[in-house]
Request: fold
Amino acid sequence: MAMDRKRGYYDEARETMSASARRRYQAEWLRELVDLTWEKAPGMRRRLEAAGLAPSDVKDPDALVRLPVMKKSQMPDLQRADPPFGGFCTVPIGKLRRIFRSPGPIYEPMGPEAGAFHAETGYYAGGFRPGDVVLQTFAYHLVPAGHEIDESLQVIGCAVVPSGTGNTETQIEIARAVAATGFVGTPSFLMTLLQRAEEMKVGRLPFEVAQVGAEALPESLRRRLEEDYGVMTRQGFGTADIGMVAYECAEKAGMHLVDEAIVQVCDPQTGAPLASGQIGELVATVHNRTYPMIRFGTGDLTVITDERCPCGRTSSRMLGWRGRADEVTKVRGMFIHPRQVDEVAARASGVERSQVVVGREGHQDTLTLRVELAAGTAADAARAALEPAIRDVMKLRGSVEIVPPGTIDAAAKKIDDRRTWD
Ligand SMILES: [Zn+2]
Reply:
């Protein structure tokens, strides 16, 4: 099938808007959304009132900072206090199409309108086209993922096989029987299907395009999926609460933010927006008229860039998932995360174990990267690679201490914060 999966847009006018047009567009839906929640979502009205705000105070994306972030971890309590949705659903319960329950527990409503998960743009940019037959292998049981994605694919014009999780051999049989061109699910399950089909000697699976998520996609795995198996593989980022907020285009250089979400990267402690390029918590406000999450703190860490993407889309891009916000440590005003320690260690060869120790000298925070090296590794070369890597990855100056094997306990914390405050 000769189909151009790399060019084209789902909604060109919107995806290529100028920055000022995007601001106007988002300010417009934000105003309507805030007015709606003031009238119909008592939970949201309580949040505004507690902050001393009226709808007219939250007229554009910049004004949102006046509203404290609502943490995902607060949701179970808020919902228990005002069941089932915490007062955040704008629609009478009987008018909903579905009600989901995610771990927490957190209850999520699916409204009468189609496509509130906002996944269509991302699926199209990731190479899905009308006429694709798609095996959708995320769960359909209780949680929203399967149903919401299924609906987005149908809005694009794909035929969906709602196969859900597991049943490797049955999935292979189905993919071949219906000539499935698309796959949705985790990257590891996609690889399992492709490899098992090889072992079963049933011939190559017909997949041409895949949207994967819910776990990391190492570039080495993507290369195998694309080069060995010919499956164009892209990722999206979303959660049950806020839907899909970011997606990869053909360039696979970060995830474009959807225009139906106002995404801010914020200080996980104060909620204040951080400058572009800094690591912080992803805080989203989404244009979902049934379940409008406004200034919702996902607890996920990310970095955003405003640099232009060669694909022609003008939205900012999220540079991957960088861990959980409750694992960050603030050093000299910058957040550092355990994953960054691994990222630094990977820049030198021969590092067996690594750990960052945060201390205090006078009124200054100190950052020391301790590493254990494999036998025969040159200490000078490791040091020469690691010192600039600390600056590059953590945006901080730090020293490197090479310690004898066995010094860092296998169960030791990646970031050992030894500062005492009194
Ligand atoms: Zn792009």
Summary: Residues 249, 251, 256, 309, 311, 313 surround zinc ion (CB under 6 Å). The mean pLDDT is 94. The two ends are 68 Å apart (CA to CA).
